[in-house]
Amino acid sequence: MSLLDDDESYVIDECRIEFSHPCNSYEKTNFMNSTQEDEDHNKFQDLCLSNAIHQVSDRLNKFCIDESKFLKDLKQWRHEAHDIIDKFYKSKHDEYVRRTNEDIDQSRETLTLLSCDHDASQDYVDWVNYIIQSIHQQIDELEQATTKFSPLKIDHSLIDIPCRISDFQRHPSSLKDLFSCSSSSNELASCLSSSTTSILNLNPNDNDSYLSFEVPKHKLNLQSDYWYSLSTNSTYLLVLEKSNLCLIDQSFRVTNKKTFSQSSIKDICWSNILSRFILISPKTIYTLDEKFISVELSSITSIHNAPWERATCHESTLFISTFGENPLILEYNIFPSIHLDKRWQSSIICQENEIINDMKSNENNLGLIINNDNNNESRLELRSIKSFECIWSIDLGDGWSYRCSPLHNNHWIVVDPYNSRLIKINSNGTIDQTNSYIKKPINVVSWSQNQFVIRTREHVYIHQYS
Question: What global pTM score does this model have?
Answer without folding.
Answer: 0.57
